[in-house]
Amino acid sequence: MQLRCRAHVVDDPAEKAALLNRQVDHFQPRGGSARAAVGEAPYGRMLAGIRGLRLEVTDVRATFKYANHRPAEVRDRIAAGLADRSGPGDSRARAHLLRRQEA
C-alpha cells in the first residue's frame, strides 16, 4: 500500500502535546506514562525540541492479493469473509476472487 500525503508542520506546543498524548494512548493503552502538557513536568520543556507532522492523505494505491496459490477451501473462506465484512471495495474484490477461482 502506498499513501500520497500532504505534510503539515505542527510547531504549536499545545498541538504537539495533543499529538504525543494521542500516540501514547494508542500505543500504550494501559497507561503508565505521564501526560504531555505545555510547561508541566516531565515533558513540557521537551516540547520545544519536537517538531510534529500531521499527514493529510491525498491518494491511496493498494493491491489485493487473491490467494491463487491457496486451496479452494481457503479462497472460499476469504470470499465469505469479504461478504460478511462488506467494507468499501469488498464486493468487487470478492467478485474478482470468485471469477479467478472459476477460471
Layout of helices and strands:
Blueprint: E1 2-10, H1 13-27, E2 52-61, H2 72-85, H3 90-102
Antiparallel strand pairs: 1-2
List keywords for this structure.
103 residues; 2 domains; 3 helices; 41% helix; elongated; alpha+beta
What is the count of β-strands?
2
Model regions low in confidence, pLDDT < 50 over at least 5 residues: none
Strand content: 15-25%
Whole-number tally of structural domains: 2
Shape summary: elongated
Number of helices: 3
Portion in helices: 40-55%
Strand ordering within the main sheet: 1-2
Largest sheet: 2 strands, antiparallel
Radius of gyration: 22 Å
- Secondary-structure content class: alpha+beta
Distance between the termini: 27 Å
Order of helices and strands: EHEHH
Mean pLDDT: 91
Write up this protein.
The chain is an alpha+beta fold and 103 residues long. The protein folds into 2 domains: 2-61, no CATH class; 72-102, no CATH class. It is built from 3 helices and 2 strands, in the order E-H-E-H-H. It has helices at residues 13-27, 72-85, 90-102, and strands at residues 2-10, 52-61. It has a two-stranded antiparallel sheet with strand order 1-2. It is elongated, with a radius of gyration of 22 Å. 5% of the residues are buried. The model has no long low-confidence stretch (mean pLDDT 91).
Short description:
This protein is an alpha+beta fold and 103 residues long. Helices cover 41% and strands 18% of the residues. It has helices at residues 13-27, 72-85, 90-102; strands at 2-10, 52-61.
